[in-house]
Fold this protein.
Amino acid sequence: LGLPVPVTPDGAFYAWMDVSRHHADSLVFAHQLLESAQVALTPGRDFGLADPQRWMRLSFASSMEDLHEAVARLRGVLA
């Protein structure tokens, strides 16, 4: 989807994604994705001060069916 994950999740239920290719502000981008894809992602500003507008967190603590649906929706918006 063009959302690089620089560190492979290891024991956590989330991925830390670089969204700068798609938008300059992860908070604004999170709102846009919620509205257009009905998928909720968490902007980086909720997790620290190191370039927070560039990062977004995706939790995958859900069923595989829901995760496949979320990725399909994101793909439709980001394509």
